[in-house]
Design brief:
The chain is α+β, with helices and mostly antiparallel strands and about 200 residues long. The protein has 5 helices and 6 strands. Helix 3 (about 110-120) runs antiparallel to helix 4 (about 160-180).
Amino acid sequence: MKSFTPLLFCILFLFSCSKKYNDNKTEKPKPVLIKIGYYPTFHLPAETIINFSEKYLIFYSPVSYNPPPPPPPLKENGQKWSIEEKMEHLKYIDERPELQPFKVNLSQNDIERIQRISDSFKSEDFNDKDLKPAMDGMSTNIIILYSNGKLVQINPMNAPNEKQRALYGEVLDLLFEKNTHKNNSVILQKIKTYH
């Protein structure tokens, strides 16, 4: 009888461990990292990384900043730029400022806003194979890393479906809320006009 009690305890322990293991196997994988690239045709590209595990967001440019130089002066009659042409070039530069990268911590509420959308993705929301490229607009690229190690890349180009648009739109809204630099405000506003 003495050996029966420890044996019964061991069997119950193994059964409960097995049940927990099986419960974990059926849990749906969760996103742990999302990267969204915004590539507008006539403005600077920007990318965002959201890390769910460590609860932070990074906003940066994937290219170096290289403002366009002014066009050369007209050679006819030695004519130089007019004041209007100079002002137009300055306005062009002002609409394309240098992006100031930043990293901010996210609250659990911020994380849940993004997770609600990403968790609602169905298999058709990962499909980008039948798209035809558009000549202009904003191309997007979405990468999602899941807790089971699966990596998904979606290139909806200029034609994201409703859920893809909702995901990058919610991330864009979060960027507006967290941004503190005026250059980034200009860049984000330009991206939003493509939305």
